[in-house]
Amino acid sequence: MKSAGFFLRFLALFVDVFILTIILFPITYFLEIFKLESYYTIIFFISLWIYYSLLESSKLQGTIGKYLIGIKVVDYNNNRISFNIATLRYVSSVLSSMLFFIGYLIIFFTKRQQTLHDIISKTLVISK
């Protein structure tokens, strides 16, 4: 198993942000038309949770961005992760972001190039 480094993971994130922007733009527009902007944050986080958790626990073993870049999420035994583990991974990625992205930057200091949310959820991101 070869760990996917920061650059590949960043490229995958870039693709995912593009896809999520396309998906969330019409929803945002709809919420603005009906004066429901107060629900945007809730819908935003639920949409991200569903996108990341469903895809990372699916047969793709990663988001569309990860799939296109050629990387996938696995457990320590190289198996597909469950939806619950993918959810834990997503929730802890929010924590990684809230800590001034230090949770992401530790990838440079771990043997298996893991982020904080990888360590918490006991997952790896590897090249296919």
Write a compact overview of the structure shown.
It contains six helices and two strands; from the N terminus they run αααβαααβ. The chain is mostly helical and about 130 residues long.
Protein architecture, described:
The model has no long low-confidence stretch (mean pLDDT 95). The protein has 128 residues and is mainly alpha-helical. The N and C termini lie close together (8 Å). The chain has a two-stranded antiparallel ribbon with strand order 1-2. It has one domain (6-127). It has helices at residues 6-33, 40-56, 64-69, 83-98, 102-105, 116-121; strands at 71-75, 123-127. It is built from six helices and two strands; from the N terminus they run αααβαααβ. Helix 1 packs across helix 2 (40-56) and helix 2 (40-56) packs across helix 4 (83-98).
Features:
mainly alpha, globular, 60% helix, 6 helices, single chain, 128 residues
Topology:
Blueprint: H1 6-33, H2 40-56, H3 64-69, E1 71-75, H4 83-98, H5 102-105, H6 116-121, E2 123-127
Antiparallel strand pairs: 1-2
Helix pairs in contact: 1-2, 2-4
